[in-house]
Structure formats: C-alpha cells, structure tokens
C-alpha cells in the first residue's frame, strides 16, 4: 500500500497544478490560436506539460538530497530540464531550429556523458559493442525522441496517454530492480502524466506544449538508456514499446525529406492526424493507440525482454503491422487522406 502513496500523491498534485497552470495561461494569454493546420478550433491554453516537468524536478531534487538518486543519474536528468526550459521559451516565443537543435544536441551529449557506457545492441547473430558507435547513437536517439514526441503531440490526449502507457509497462520491468531510484523516476513521471491527462483528454482544456513534449521524449530516452544499462530492458523492448510513435514519426519524416520538405516546419501529415480528421474524433484515435499499446505492443515487449537474443526479430514482427498501418493512413503525405480498401 505504501508503494502507492507516492504516485497517488503526485497524481493529485499534478491535477491541481495543471489546473493552476491553465488558469495562469488564460490570464496572461499563453494560448495556441488555431491556424489552417490546427487540429482544434478554439484558442487553447498551452504549457500544461510544465506540471510534469516541475513534479519530476522536485522529486529528483528530493531523492538526490536523501541519497536515493545516484549522482550520475541526477546529473544526466539535468539535460532533460534544459530541454524543458528551451521548450518553455519556445512556447512563449518561437526559437529557430538553427539554435534549438544544437542546444538539444548539447543536452543529449551532456546526459549520455554522465550515464557512461551505453549497453551493447544485440542483433542476435552480431552485436554492436563499441562505445565509439553506441554513444553517438545514444545522442542521436535522444535528440530524435524529444523531437518525435513533439511531432506526435498533435491531438487531444495522445502524448499524455503514451507517456502513461509506456511508464506503466516499463515500471513492471524495473519494480524489482536493485536500483530503486529508477522505479521512483518512472512512478513520478507516469503519475504526473496521468494528472495532466485529466485536463488534456478530448476536448482538451490545456495542451502539453513544447515544455512538456520535448521533456517527455528526452526522459523516455534517458530511462531507456538507464534500464538498458541495468539489464532490466533492451533497446528492442523500448523500440517496441514506443512503436506507435516511432513508426509514425519516422515514416512521416522520411517521406517529407524525400520530397524536399523542411522537417522542422509544422505540418499535419502524420498518420494519426490523418486518422483524426478521417474519423472526426481525437478520442477514438487516442484510444486506438492505447489499445495497440496494451494489446499488441506490450506482449511483444515482454517477449523481447524474456528472449533478448530474439529482440531484433521480435521488433520486426511487432512493428511490421504498424508500418503498414502508417502507410495505410498516408503518413508523411500532405493533403486530404482518403480511406482505400
């Protein structure tokens, strides 16, 4: 019972804090005003993700002060708070990509350096063991995940739901870990996300904003690196677990690059955005993503942890149908989506 006190308390505080942030955003006019490509029709407060960031930061400081959170992990987490701060500034006044991306890379390098050696990537028959390869890959992965999460935060409830689902599943694998600090980080992140989601479900009364989306993606990347390092999860289990977001965002990015579009410019050509317009509902699409996470991706994630040597092949089996689904919904293609048989 005592293990539920922390997440329950964080959830309640997150609900209250998100409501206060909404009131503040309305008062000082921090609003997302609809434009042609918007998925909403009325000006909506932005920055609700700050509740997730603030609760995560407060808990990290507390657990670091009492000696529960190791110094290396605490220092690595600072990179995530830098990303959150940049996102906060971006919510207030847009930061050009030529400044934002280098700062994101610097934050990723900082965090990877503090975490130390990256766990080898096992393909079954061969593996990558060189830190000269693994650490740069980790930096790229962190930068991609924080941007990916930003890209995928485009309809009501989807980013918050993904964060809750991923944290719940990853908590299952680390709850018996000898390093209790990881369990605490995941518990706080998941509970804070659930509290925010209470305000963000369709119809959303506040948006996560860049302050929360970039932070969320970066934090999940850090948790992946830490759990891989500790042996409780693998790169393949994380790839599978984040499958919906990774597949949609990656296919969309590649298609946009192939036709010469600027990847960092806002658009509405992700598969989930096409689906939301087609079904005229954010909630239906978000619930579908939740069901895919629970019913499809979670069993494959478990299998990849139980059979780590088969992780690469299991990820192909798990993500293959998602690739076909993303292509079915024209991920990366501009214009009106039309369902075909």
Tell me about this structure.
71% of the residues lie in helices and 2% in strands. Strand 3 and strand 4 (127-128) form a beta hairpin. It has a two-stranded antiparallel ribbon with strand order 1-2. Strands 3-4 form a two-stranded antiparallel sheet. The chain is mostly helical. The protein has helices at residues 2-28, 50-65, 71-92, 97-115, 131-152, 158-174, 180-200, 209-230, 235-241, 243-258, 271-279, 282-306, 311-328; strands at 31-32, 44-45, 121-122, 127-128. The mean pLDDT is 93. Helix 6 runs parallel beside helix 12. It is globular. It has one domain (2-328).
* Strand and helix order: HEEHHHEEHHHHHHHHH
Sheet with the most strands, sense and barrel status:
2 strands, antiparallel
Mean pLDDT: 93
Strand order of the largest sheet: 1-2
How many beta-strand runs? Answer: 4
Taken as a percent bin, the fraction of beta residues is: under 5%
Total helix count? Answer: 13
Q: In oligomeric terms, what are we looking at?
A: single chain
Structural class: mainly alpha
- Shape label: globular
Question: What Rg, in angstroms, do the CA atoms define?
Answer: 19 Å
Low-pLDDT runs of 5+ residues are none
Helix content: over 70%
Separation of the first and last Cα atoms = 50 Å
| Domain module count | 1
């Amino acid at each position: 019972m005592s293990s539920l006190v922390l997440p329950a308390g964080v959830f309640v505080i997150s609900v209250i804090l998100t409501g206060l942030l909404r009131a503040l955003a309305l008062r000082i006019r921090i609003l997302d005003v609809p434009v042609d490509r918007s998925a909403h029709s009325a000006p909506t407060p932005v920055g609700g993700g700050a509740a997730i960031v603030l609760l995560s930061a407060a808990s990290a400081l507390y657990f670091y002060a009492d000696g529960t959170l190791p110094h290396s992990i605490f220092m690595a987490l600072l990179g995530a708070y830098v990303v959150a701060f940049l996102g906060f500034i971006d919510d207030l006044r847009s930061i050009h990509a030529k400044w934002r991306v280098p700062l994101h890379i610097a934050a990723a390098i900082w965090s990877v350096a503090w975490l130390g050696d990256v766990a080898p990537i096992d393909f079954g028959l061969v593996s990558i063991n060189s830190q000269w390869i693994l650490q740069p890959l980790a930096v790229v992965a962190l930068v991609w995940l924080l941007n990916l999460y930003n890209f995928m935060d485009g309809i009501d409830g989807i980013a918050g739901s993904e964060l809750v689902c991923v944290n719940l599943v990853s908590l299952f694998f680390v709850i018996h870990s000898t390093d209790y600090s990881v369990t605490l980080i995941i518990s706080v992140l998941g509970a804070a996300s659930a509290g925010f989601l209470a305000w963000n479900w369709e119809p959303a009364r506040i948006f996560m904003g860049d302050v929360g989306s970039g932070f969320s993606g970066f934090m999940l990347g850090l948790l992946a690196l830490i759990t891989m390092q500790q042996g409780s999860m693998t790169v393949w289990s994380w790839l599978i677990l984040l499958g919906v977001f990774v597949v949609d965002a990656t296919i969309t990015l590649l298609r946009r690059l192939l036709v010469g579009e600027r990847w960092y410019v806002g658009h509405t050509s992700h598969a989930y955005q096409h689906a939301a317009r087609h079904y005229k509902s954010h909630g239906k699409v978000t619930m579908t993503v939740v069901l895919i996470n629970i019913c499809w991706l979670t069993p494959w994630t478990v299998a990849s942890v139980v059979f780590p040597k088969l992780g690469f092949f299991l990820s192909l089996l798990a993500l293959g149908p998602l690739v076909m689904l993303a292509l079915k919904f024209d991920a990366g293609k501009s214009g009106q989506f039309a369902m075909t048989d």
